[in-house]
Design a protein that fits this description.
Layout lengths: L4 E5 L3 H14 L1 E6 L7 H18 L2 E4 L4 H7 L11 H20 L4 E4 L9 H15 L2 E2 L9 H12 L10 H9 L1
Parallel strand pairs: 1-2, 1-4, 2-3, 4-5
Helix pairs in contact: 1-2, 1-6, 4-5
The chain binds iron/sulfur cluster.
The site of iron/sulfur cluster has 11 residues, from helix 4 and helix 7.
């Protein structure tokens, strides 16, 4: 039986590795790297390189989108002082999931999802309604999964160790980096 075409928005290898491993066995999987929030560019390239490495080792298809931080800056204008988990994150997540939906629609995917719910400070309660709204807009299905559950965190830890994956210590944007430095 033919597997469904699944587009997985992936924020980074530590959040993505267990999810990619699980979904590549169930779906005709393609990973999408679209994360204009990541700052600075050097960090963006480092995170992307790890996702590329995982996909190439497992022979998973990958769509690598352009790095457009100026567009992201514009979207979050006025929300610079928001704490992590606040309104800026809602805009940031919506921007990335909307783009994932657009790419999924344009390329004949039936279903899409994101690795974002694996993030420590990211909740499925906030992310899933955004994914479902995007899915409805584009006439797609969205896999509303809390990747922190079901032993996936443990699997991720094992795979990260096994593959010696780079692990960042901040969410991604310049504001989360500044907050981390202040801690
Ligand atoms: S803290 Fe993370 S989710 Fe929130 S705006 Fe920054 S990069 Fe996006």
């Amino acid at each position: 039986m033919e597997k469904e075409k699944f587009l997985l928005h992936t924020c980074c290898a530590p959040c993505g590795i267990a999810v990619i491993d699980e979904l590549r066995k169930k779906f005709d999987l393609t990973v999408l790297f679209y994360n204009p929030n990541i700052f600075p560019e050097e960090e963006y390239l480092k995170r992307k390189a790890e996702v590329v490495r995982v996909c190439s080792e497992w022979e998973v298809k990958m769509i690598d989108q352009d790095y457009n931080p100026a567009e992201w800056d514009e979207k979050v204008q006025g929300l610079e002082k928001e704490r992590e988990g606040g309104m800026r994150c809602g805009v940031c997540i919506k921007m990335r999931l909307f783009h994932a939906g657009e790419i999924a629609k344009e390329n004949g995917f039936e279903i899409f999802g994101t690795t974002l719910t694996m993030g420590r400070q990211k909740t499925a309660k906030v992310i899933s309604p955004i994914g479902e709204m995007v899915a409805e807009h584009f006439g797609l299905k969205y896999l509303a999964e809390d990747w922190k559950k079901g032993g996936r965190q443990e699997t991720a830890r094992e795979l990260i160790k096994q593959k010696n994956i780079y692990q960042q210590n901040y969410c991604g944007c310049k504001y989360s980096l500044a907050a981390k430095k202040e801690e």
